[in-house]
Amino acid sequence: MRRRLPVADRDFRPAYVVWELTLACDQRCTHCGSRAGGARDGELTTEEAVRLAQELGEMRAEEVVLIGGEAYLHPGFLDVIAALKGAGARPVMTTGGRGVTSALAQAMALAGLAAASVSIDGLERTHDRMRATPGGFASATAALRHLADAGIAIAANTNLNRWNEADLEALYEHLVALGIRSWQVQLTTPLGRASDRPDMILQPYDLLDLVPRVARLKDRAFADGVLLMPGNNLGYFGPEEALLRSAHEGGRDHFRGCQAGRYVLGVESNGAVKGCPSLQAAYVGGNVRARSLREIWAMAPEMAFARSRDDQPTAHLWGYCAGCDFAETCQGGCTFTAHAFFGRPGNNPYCHFRARQFAQRGLRERLVQTASAPGDPFDHAFFEIVTEPLGAAEPALVPRERLLKVRRSPGSTAPA
Fold this sequence. Notes:
single chain
């Protein structure tokens, strides 16, 4: 087993930052975890955002991803890009692309944007359904062309779920033809608006087919000069793990536990700070209007939950994950994904190894929604796990109006 350095000797820093610059958005995507649409109350001004960009540079941030909503809808968007570049960080963005014109792409390049990833979630019919935007696929495709023409490195990202998984291979062909150099694929979790659509959510046994398909595409991507990488909630530890996690052919990388608050930082548009941008409200460690980012990073217990796992890597685990052979290394997989199902981390049903283990016994796990989400940014529903024969027929989903609507305070489920 790889020796871990004591926590005190680890160089924890926000090397990779995802910054929600505004919650304002020009689309109403059906799977949006933050339920983006209108701006948050009290979003950071341009002056405040520029100061935060400078502080990120002082804390040795390497790459800062600007997101939303749509980051370009913040009035200081271009100023923040320039401030990040001036502070020594690499400014990039993730966008739905609807408003990325040729002129805006040129302006972003001039400000110093290094790369942009456009969210494309299927072929035209599927993408437009998921994004709730007629013409969304065409505008996202055009955005990739405008960005490339401006000299900005282009990439794509895709949320995989039951609505779009059939498009996977054809979508790869489309993206490669557009000249992307990298593609991130992750699993849609029942976070935000996705929690309102349980028919969208993959079942754990869907990974038995999906993960090998992604692995086969990654082999193709190496040959095509494209880096295909899984998000932190796609895996873990099946026979394709090293292939999926490695940035080079023949690599032996693997998932090493949640990096929230270790080397990853999330900032919300009103200045709230979390260890990961997708974490729920219970993980907010403070606000940059009240405390410096450096102090929040170093002192807030909500930022340190993943760091503490280096000394006690399995203490927070429960259910299947508590007894898994990879427990000390995986540490329960993606924190926000497990929390989105059960209101706490430590037992992650989206696991390829786990699905294979059940399948070898002729069994599978099925997730059943028991309570719906309250309707807030980064909220979640509640689920329970049913274990049943592998070939069982799926029962009809419970109508949403029959589910108990839960309204809990943001602090009702604390990090573990």
